[in-house]
Design goal:
Helices cover 23% and strands 17% of the residues. The protein has 70 residues and is α/β, with parallel strands linked by helices. The chain is flat and about 40 Å long. 11% of the residues are buried.
Length: 70
């Protein structure tokens, strides 16, 4: 396994306690040498959050609409 897929709902949400540093699932995956794909990105905020947290790949309606295999 080289890539781990995370749903966008699993990303760390910004909160009022900015001084507290939570280690995100993306950080943990990178620690183990894995790339991370964040799925179900459906807003610009979700895309920014995934990028800010270090996701390697993004997938979802905000990136490109889903399409069937041809």
């Amino acid at each position: 396994v080289d890539t781990i897929s995370l749903n966008s709902d699993m990303l760390v949400k910004p909160n009022a306690d900015e001084d507290k540093e939570d280690e995100s699932l993306i950080d943990i995956a990178h620690h183990f040498g894995k790339e991370v794909l964040v799925t179900d990105i459906d807003s610009a905020i979700g895309l920014q959050r995934a990028e800010r947290q270090g996701a390697d790949f993004a997938q979802g309606e905000r990136v490109a609409p889903y399409s069937p295999f041809e």
